[in-house]
Amino acid sequence: MSRNNLIYEGKAKILYEGTEPGTIIQYFKDDTTAGNGEKKAVISGKGVLNNRISEFIYRKLEDIGIHTHFIKSLNMREQLVRAVEIIPVEVVIRNVTAGSLSKRFGVEEGMLLPVPLVEYYLKSDELNDPMITEEHIKTFDWAIEEELEEMRRVAIRVNDFLAGLFLGAKIKLIDMKLEFGRLYDEEGNIYIVLADEISPDSCRLWDSETGEKLDKDRFRRDMGGLEEAYQEVAKRLGILNSNENVLNDRKGENSETNKEIKKKPNTKSGSKPKK
């Protein structure tokens, strides 16, 4: 684990001061929670898998021009990311009915929605992440209208791209949660970038043929086999080869890579207080 100064510890990740100005080290834990932390467990290897899956996805998104906080992987559990000011709004985009959507409206899971449904939730453990509207977001100044429009635009584009990416691996993207942050340059210009992670912790993923759940619902619903499901996702995406087993072989978790930091065009790493 990194020895840099601790910034914040959440339910699934720990943030440390980065190795370069304007950067943060994001460490993926094996801790697993549900029900806003009421249900907890430690599942060996989960952090390694989430790190590798999220890195793979963020690199794919950067390739199509979607800016993220990701810079590079440091080792099997850590990423170097840009320091951003997190916008306290979780953007959830749904393609198929499942989870809280089904419970809220009394509809069975598995119904294909005619168009992707975009929802917003306040990022607040204390309030159990309540569902909010665009009017709430603007009224309480969690994001201005231009930022909200950009978040929605990017969320829809990410969903379209990842739905196709996963389908190519015989996985159906049911829904996912995205988080965004403000990246400031030296002149004070603000850029909205994708932050946090995209992994089976933040997505619902079903086998496209059998409907088998390959995501965190296996833990939420006491189905078991969460680590095997995450590893199956990694193998189908080509992140792991068919013989590789992250769960039994996690040597080298602390070995640093020597990749250079790739900076965004016209931006500098760093974060300033919100104006």
Write the layout of secondary structure elements.
Layout (H helix, E strand, L loop, with lengths): L5 E4 L3 E5 L5 E6 L2 E4 L4 E4 L3 H18 L6 E4 L4 E5 L2 E2 L2 E8 L2 H7 L6 E11 L8 E2 L1 H6 L5 H23 L3 E8 L1 E5 L5 E5 L8 E5 L9 H4 L5 H11 L39
Antiparallel strand pairs: 1-2, 2-3, 3-7, 4-5, 6-7, 8-13, 9-10, 9-12, 10-11, 12-15, 13-14
Helix pairs in contact: 1-6
Give your account of this protein's structure.
This protein is an alpha+beta fold and 275 residues long. The protein contains six helices and 15 strands. The chain has a domain at 86-207: D-amino Acid Aminotransferase, Chain A, domain 1 (2-Layer Sandwich), CATH 3.30.470. It has helices at residues 46-63, 99-105, 134-139, 145-167, 217-220, 226-236, and strands at residues 6-9, 13-17, 23-28, 31-34, 39-42, 70-73, 78-82, 85-86, 89-96, 112-122, 131-132, 171-178, 180-184, 190-194, 203-207. Helix 1 runs parallel beside helix 6. The longest helix has 23 residues, at 145-167.
